[in-house]
Amino acid sequence: MWRHSSARRRGRVHPGGARVQERFLNDYVVVDASLAFKWLVTEVHTDEANNLGRLWNSRGIRVAAPYLMPVELTNALHQRVVRGELTVAAATRRLESLLSSGLELHQPPHIYGRAMALARKLGQGATYDAHYLALAETLGCELWTADGRFYRAVHPVVERVRWVGETAARG
């Protein structure tokens, strides 16, 4: 698990050597629940997600998400509990650890309407992912996801969306 530090970010290169457009480079990155979940359990791309977290921490990049994220993570952890893969106590500890790690939760008032507009524009059947995208727009930063289907659906139109698998493909 990563921890936020006050160290300033150095350089203009993201994981795997990928160059990103200057307009998305600032002190924030938005992560969605699919990526954050990889910080809580071991599954495909967990190593890449952990590496991203360490990189952002070392560069002083603030990790942000909408208030929706803890609800989504609670549900995903609950599913692991139901399947007998985690105890309630272990799931709770993992979630509390993440929420106390420096993750910044944001709830700008306009995010709900913008999420609906983005979901409609991008042909998404639900607004969950669009909330993360709306926050990334607001903060002027990238949105990192581990949801390959969402990434493939929106990346051709929205270049600020990045996929954790990009780092595996390059590394």
Strand content: 5-15%
Computed structural class: alpha/beta
Largest sheet: 5 strands, parallel
Terminal CA distance reads 20 Å
How does CATH name the architecture?
3-Layer(aba) Sandwich
Low-confidence stretches: 1-23
Order of strands across the main sheet: 3-2-1-4-5
Overall pLDDT confidence: 88
Number of DSSP E strands: 5
Helix content: 40-55%
Q: Report the CATH topology name.
A: Rossmann fold
Briefly, what CATH class?
Alpha Beta
C-alpha-based Rg, rounded: 15 Å
Coarse morphology: globular
Name the helix and strand elements from N-terminus to C-terminus, one letter apiece: EHHEHHEHHEHEH
Estimate nothing, just give the exact number of structural domains.
1
Kindly report the name of the CATH homologous superfamily: 5'-nuclease
Number of alpha- plus pi-helical segments: 8
